[in-house]
Amino acid sequence: MKKISWGTGIVIAIIIFVVLVLAQTIYLMNQKVDLVEEDYYKKGIEYQKDIDVQKKTNELSEKVNIDFNDQYLIISFPKNLSDNKLSGEILLYRPSDSGLDMKIPLSTDSLSQVIPVSGLKKGFWRVKLRWQYEGQNYYDESSFRVE
């Protein structure tokens, strides 16, 4: 059996290192990267408006109630609101995969809306509720985990 010299060993080690670095680089370059928002720059500029709207929402005498019970997401509006004056949308936001995000129009038939979550992928979800009532904008958000 022929013995490998120390010079040959160093060359083999460098070649193995380069191959591993190239393999890792190729693997990482092919990973899907989701931005938090597609138009994050515009959203960043308008962030103060969102803060003001959320502050106004928190000042309501009765809060919007967002409940999750493993099968349904239940959104209940204050009883003192008229359901035919409500409009808006519900965004089910998946931070780890923007392809799973869902926009649902707000139902104006009643002051509550029930959304089944059986079709949602397991993991962390955020509910972003944007709604209007009598010309005023409101915003609320909550999070839940589908098991």
Automatic annotation (TrEMBL):
Keywords carried by this UniProt record: Membrane, Transmembrane, Transmembrane helix
InterPro entries: FixH
Name of the protein described by the UniProt record: FixH family protein
Matching Pfam families: FixH (PF05751)
TM ranges: 6-28
Keyword Transmembrane: yes
